[in-house]
């Protein structure tokens, strides 16, 4: 399908979702949010896509919410305002719960909702020129819909600082607090992203989807009998699958599993 503010490209087993509103720093409005949500939902049901990379055209990853859109939403009635905010929350959830591993390719600014997008991805690779901020409080707002993903990425203690101060911080600081997994000079950013892609393609797709579910299951839960049983049930289901049998057989016979040969054929 065609999009007004997105570009969707497929290179082998990898889908690249490009925010394409560069003249406004890839800021969100209703259309951008709806297009992202639709795109993520469609990618979720595609078995020919192993990895999703989220990136931004132009000088910046994303400046977050379009302030004109935010102002209009704030002037709407309570029901319309909440419905509008729910669309953003649902879009972020669709990104965070994609079965495929997701990579945020961040350059330039990633403010507000842009930082939320980066946090909702499984892996964040940032250019050394990247700048991050949860800037909402300086606009009289709160980082509500992005908060589950940002707090998951950097923890409540770091969120206490950056949610309240709205300070801008560098890619190096983002790596120190856990937001960015890797940083690279601008000219090497795509090379670093490709390194992560290559590593991901060595894993089994069903195992990776199961691992993502496992992280959601285990995170922030106390170690009790219920969690022990949940994790035991989880691995019992995974290892009964054909992919696990293939992976174990390949390892024991010192051969490459089938999915790696499929990945190589599509690169």
Task: Give an account of the 3D structure.
38% of the residues are buried. This protein is an alpha/beta fold and 267 residues long. It has 11 helices and 9 strands. It has helices at residues 30-44, 67-75, 78-96, 113-120, 147-165, 171-176, 189-200, 205-218, 225-239, 242-252, 258-265, and strands spanning 6-11, 14-19, 51-56, 102-106, 109-111, 123-127, 131-133, 169-170, 182-184.
Report a brief summary of the structure.
By secondary structure, this protein is of the alpha/beta class. Helix content is about 50%, strand content about 15%. The chain has a six-stranded mixed β-sheet with strand order 1-2-3-4-6-9, sandwiched between helices.
How many individual β-strands? 9
Q: Strand sequence of the main sheet, in spatial order?
A: 1-2-3-4-6-9
SS-based class? alpha/beta
Mean pLDDT: 91
Distance between the termini: 24 Å
- Mass-distribution shape: globular
Based on CA atoms alone, the radius of gyration comes out at 19 Å
- Helix count? 11
* Estimated helix fraction: 40-55%
The fraction of residues assigned to DSSP E strands is: 5-15%
Question: What is the ordering of alpha helices and beta strands?
Answer: EEHEHHEEHEEHEHEHHHHH
Uncertain spans: none
Biggest β-sheet description:
6 strands, mixed
Features of the shown structure:
single chain, about 270 residues, alpha/beta, 3-stranded mixed sheet, about 15% strand
């Amino acid at each position: 399908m065609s999009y007004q503010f997105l570009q969707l490209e497929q290179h082998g087993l990898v889908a690249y979702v490009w925010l394409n509103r560069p003249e406004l720093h890839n800021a969100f409005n209703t259309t951008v949010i709806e297009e992202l949500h639709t795109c993520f939902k469609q990618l979720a049901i595609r078995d020919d896509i192993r990895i999703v990379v989220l990136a931004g055209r132009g000088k910046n990853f994303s400046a977050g919410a379009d302030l004109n859109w935010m102002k209009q939403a704030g002037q709407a009635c309570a029901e319309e305002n909440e419905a509008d905010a729910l669309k953003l929350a649902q879009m972020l959830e669709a990104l965070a719960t994609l079965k495929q591993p997701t990579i945020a390719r961040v350059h330039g600014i990633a403010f507000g909702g842009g930082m939320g997008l980066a946090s909702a991805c499984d892996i964040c690779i940032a250019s050394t020129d990247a700048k991050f901020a949860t800037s909402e409080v300086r606009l009289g707002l709160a980082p509500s819909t992005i908060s589950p993903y940002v707090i998951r990425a950097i923890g409540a203690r770091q969120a206490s600082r950056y949610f309240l101060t709205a300070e801008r911080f560098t890619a190096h600081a983002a790596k120190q607090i856990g937001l960015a997994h890797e940083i690279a000079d601008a000219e090497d950013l795509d090379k670093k992203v490709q390194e992560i892609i290559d590593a991901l393609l060595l894993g089994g797709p069903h195992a990776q989807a199961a691992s993502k579910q496992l992280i959601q299951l285990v995170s922030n839960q106390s170690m009790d009998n219920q969690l022990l049983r949940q994790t035991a049930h989880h691995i019992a289901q995974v290892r009964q699958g054909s992919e696990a049998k293939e992976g174990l057989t390949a390892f024991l016979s010192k051969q490459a599993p089938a999915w790696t040969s499929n990945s190589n054929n599509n690169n």
